[in-house]
Amino acid sequence: xxxxxxxxxxxxxxIDPNRYGRxxxxxxxxxxxxxxxxxxxxxxxxxxxxxxAVAAASPAAAERYSGGNVQFAPLHYFYRQIVWIAxxxxxxxVISMLPRxxxxxxSLIGAGIFLxxxxxxxxxxxxxxxxxxxxxxxxxxxxxxxxxxxxFVVATAWLLSxxxxxxxxxxxxxxxxxxxxxAVLLMLQPDFGSTxxxxxxxxxxxxxxxxxxxxxxxxxxxxxxxxxxxxxxxPVATVRIDGFLFGEGDNFQVENAMRTLTAGGLxxxxxxxxxxxxxxxxxxxxxxxxxxxxxxxxIACIAIAALYLAIIVRVLVKLLDEESSFAILAAAGLxxxxxxxxxxxxxxxxHLAPSKGMTLPFISYGGSSMLALSVGMGLLLAFTRRNPYxxxxxxxxxxxxxxxxx
Length: 406
Prior knowledge:
Layout: H1 2-9, H2 27-34, H3 37-65, H4 76-96, H5 100-124, E1 135-137, E2 140-142, H6 144-161, H7 171-188, H8 192-208, H9 213-233, H10 235-246, H11 251-263, H12 288-318, H13 325-349, H14 367-383, E3 397-399, E4 402-404
Antiparallel strand pairs: 1-2, 3-4
């Protein structure tokens, strides 16, 4: 009776103290202990910074893109970004919970689907600012190349990892043919910036896969030659490079972005205090880094650059004790792609690279961009998961019937 009375009087805890402990074998519990929580925290901070940055850039973008018959609210793009984040973050979490084999299989299927979609973009895609990069679906549109980026990295990692089983497989040649096809399709849009990212990530993955240094050198020279040829025969590249080198064409926008970024000094003009952002063509997407510089200062810009670097370093550190060649290639490729996109955007904003129309990952506004980045980060989290019950040691040990080595 006393025990019964004590059980009634003693309040039950709102949260079960054993839930999400190491003994919890539910899917969510296993995910919590296996996921790289530091990497997840860094990405969460980046998304939070992105919301603040879009809120700062939204009034300028709303004023610029309000039509004659439509008047956008000052925080129009901020509210829309909240919706995109609400859709994207669950996608990232769900993908990060997938076993490696399942994540690989879905990536291969997705790469095939979006490669086919990329083929149809020049045919059925609507023209926006002289380019065809989108495909309309119902009331919305999506950019196939954005979704293809992370999926193609995983597909290439799988292809290159097959060399472990059979050295005679022409995996380098096959991957070269695939990247050539993607490059042609992107140049038809035209999308010079994404072409560079695909090519650079492919070369980095070849280096990790053990391609001969001499051949890598030849590929590097070929890449330089390709850029030179693009300058002479590809009008988009000509305009961008001339603007960067000689101050012609749209170079005014890049210079304007640099002036906006430095206008706030070290600590910025404060939230909502920026004025130069109203003169930027894409303050909420391509040039959001400049808006951050004006309103929050160069210190904030440096902190964001350090945050991107921390994410890349964290991934590479996690791969130091990884044995699966596929996981190494996939995770490293995704990290390189993520970091390269961030670096190119920041270099454009500080006038160290030609304008490329590329967003700043998880910070710039955009539905396709946010969803595609969430897919890529979800895959990255899936491929860097570790089982906390596996003791790492310099010796081969038996665990759950499998062999493991540190």
